[in-house]
Design brief:
The complex is a heterodimer of chains A (about 240) and B (about 350). Chain A has about 240 residues and is an alpha/beta fold. Chain A has nine helices and ten strands. In chain A, the strands form two sheets. A six-stranded mixed sheet of chain A has the order 6-7-8-3-9-10, sandwiched between helices. In chain A, helix 6 links the parallel strand 7 and strand 8. In chain A, helix 3 crosses helix 4 and helix 3 runs parallel beside helix 5. Chain A starts with a strand and ends with a helix. Chain B is about 70% helix and about 0% strand. With about 350 residues, chain B is mostly helical. Chain B is built from 16 helices and no strands. In chain B, about 30% of the residues are buried. Classes of the chains: A alpha/beta (about 240), B mainly alpha (about 350). At the A-B interface, helix 2, strand 6, helix 3 and helix 5 of A face helix 12 and helix 13 of B.
């Protein structure tokens, strides 16, 4: 589904991704953790080319990411992304936020797109807010709308870039619950998060990144009970207290 | 139930709190009242009681108050300039159509396809009325156009053409393509670097020197183009400010659902950015509206110039006060309705915040 082959990226002089090799299968769920600045967000942002890699190859669903703008748009339509700060469109109602992509990118008739939007709003338990504007919702509600917005494009992969780290503590659970439901339906997911409970319950693999490299990757059981590297041990001891 | 103290509520409370709360404010209030009493009654007397409303210039000179006759006797020339006298119903009708269309367009729920057709048909009818030459209407040269229709023509089309052009320039200035970016920067900085007067001079005097013998471009059109180019450069900078206020997350969210550059701008970025900059944009449009009066320097007779011409007639010489008060009211109505409408628009668009 997604392949990284020896991917490098620099921000100016800073070598943020240093030879990433990674292969993600269909229906696989991967959690990426690591200290800030380790390159984990950059890594998943390369998948829909919000960031450009400078060496190596990235292949998504059989299409290689190059400067070909048509290919990029095709891949973006197939890859859903959820951001730390939700990034809903504040000038549109919730239902308009959800139907924007289907109507303009997929050319779905407006009525059908709105029905799909309502279906996914039901799914994230927020259908009653459909006619409101994003500014009228709480952070947790906004993030669930953002998840539904991505789902409306019927994506093959969902990327989550620290989806709960901008939320108040009491709202984290409602978002994680939606993500767990999504996982149970077999969605291919790559999640950057420090929610280790989430990693334990749904991930097939947990990756630990540091200094632009994937230091260690393993099943959640092995990863948490038997970390191999010193850096991983230190990191786990710091976030698990 | 405990009531608030009498002196802090109602009219008396308001007066105490706002006009007489302390020594200094009390003195200022009394002083202001004194000045108003000194100035307002005589002004009222001059404008409404001792004034002459529809008399000859000689009768005006004998009256003690304002001479509104300078307007009421000469209104046809002030409004329509040198447009043939017996044909002046045509520009009048054209203006009525324009006002009707503008008024109907006020409501945003009507911004649909039929309205666009309405405007296109309206423009053709207005143009036909002004130019004539068909269906038995006498042709009228554009050199004879003048007065209020000319002011409206220059400002309405100047502003409606300058706004989209300004938006495109702003987008161009932020483009990643270096060629486009440099062109837009050069355009904006060059145009902003010269006064409108010099642009008008250039378009009317210098441009014809470069055209081949026998080819002339209509003078009004040249002034119109100069106004559009000038206003667009300023609008572009205002819009750029709005674009810079947008967070990167909005671009990324739009891109991540597969919208291309054009759709991202049209559906996500511009609706928000343009809304933020409504107040400075309207300032810009209002000042452009008033700047159309500068076309007098290339001998176009807009409403300012026709009014001045009346004052050079010996019969009406010396009544400039009244004439300029009238002009001020005319321009104020235009500017005030623009700013009023912008406030309404802002209110309607701010539902999401």
């Amino acid at each position: 589904m997604i392949q990284f082959i020896d991917v490098h990226k620099w921000y100016g002089e800073f070598h943020v991704l240093q030879g990433i090799n990674l292969s993600v299968e269909k229906q696989e769920r991967i959690v990426i953790c690591g200290p800030s600045g380790s390159g984990k967000s950059t890594l998943i942002r390369c998948i829909n080319r919000l960031e450009e890699h400078q060496r190596g190859r990235i292949i998504v669903d059989g299409i290689e990411l190059t400067n070909n703008i048509k290919n990029i748009e095709k891949i973006r339509a197939e890859v859903g992304m959820v951001f730390q700060h939700f990034n809903l469109f504040p000038h549109l109602t919730i239902v308009q936020n959800l139907s924007l992509g289907p109507v303009w990118v997929r050319k779905t008739p407006k009525k059908e797109a709105e029905e799909t939007a309502m279906y996914y709003l039901e799914k994230v338990h927020i259908a009653e807010q459909a006619r409101k504007y994003p500014g009228q919702l709480s952070g947790g509600q906004q993030q669930r709308v953002a998840i539904a917005r991505s789902l409306c494009m019927n994506p093959k992969v969902m990327l989550f870039d620290e989806p709960t780290s901008a939320l108040d503590p009491e709202m984290i659970k409602e978002v994680l619950d939606v993500m767990i439901e999504l996982a149970q339906e077999g969605m291919t997911m790559i999640v950057v998060t420090h929610e280790m409970g989430f990693a334990k319950s749904v991930a097939h693999r947990v990756l630990f990144m540091d200094f632009g490299k994937i230091v260690e990757g393993n099943t959640p059981e092995e990863f948490f009970s038997n970390p191999q590297h010193e850096r991983t041990k230190l990191f786990l001891s710091q976030i698990l207290h | 139930m405990l009531k608030p103290p009498r002196a802090s509520i109602g009219v008396i409370g308001w007066i105490r709190n706002n006009l007489f709360n302390g020594m200094l404010n009390s003195i200022l209030t009394i002083l202001t009242l004194f000045l108003l009493w000194q100035f307002v009654p005589p002004l009222f007397r001059w404008a409404f009681i001792d004034s002459a409303w529809h008399t000859t210039g000689q009768a005006c000179r004998d009256a003690a108050g304002a001479c509104w006759s300078v307007i009421s006797i000469n209104y046809r020339f002030i409004l329509f300039g040198f447009y043939p006298y017996e044909e002046q119903w045509r520009p009048f009708l054209a203006m009525l159509i324009l006002f009707g269309l503008l008024f109907y367009t006020r409501d945003r729920t009507r911004w649909k396809k039929p309205l666009a057709y309405g405007w296109i048909i309206g423009l053709f009818v207005m143009g036909f009325l002004m130019i004539g030459g068909l269906f038995g209407l006498k042709p009228v040269e554009s050199t004879q156009w003048g007065g209020l229709p000319l002011t409206l023509l220059l400002s309405v089309f100047g502003l409606t053409a300058a706004y989209p052009l300004g938006v495109i320039l702003a987008l161009g200035r932020r483009s990643k393509m270096p060629g486009i970016k440099v062109l837009c920067i050069i355009y904006i900085e060059l145009i902003r670097g010269v006064p409108l007067i010099s642009l008008l001079f250039m378009s009317s005097i210098i441009l014809p020197l470069f055209l081949p013998e026998g080819i002339t471009i209509n003078k009004i059109l040249r002034a119109q183009v100069a106004i559009i180019m000038f206003t667009a450069a300023y609008i572009a900078e205002v819009v750029r400010g709005g674009l810079q206020g947008m967070s990167r997350g909005q671009y990324e969210a739009a891109e991540s659902i597969g919208l291309n550059y054009y759709l991202t701008m049209r559906l996500v970025i511009l609706p928000q950015a343009l809304k933020i900059v409504i107040p400075p944009t309207v300032s810009q449009l209002i000042s452009a509206f008033k700047d159309t009066s500068l076309v007098v320097i290339i001998a176009l007779f807009d409403v300012l110039k026709t009014t001045q011409s009346v004052l050079s007639n010996p019969e009406w010489m010396g009544f400039s006060r009244e004439a300029y008060v009238f002009l001020a009211i005319l321009y104020f109505l235009g500017c005030f309705s623009m700013s009023n409408y912008s406030r309404k628009l802002e209110k309607e668009l701010s539902r999401g915040d």
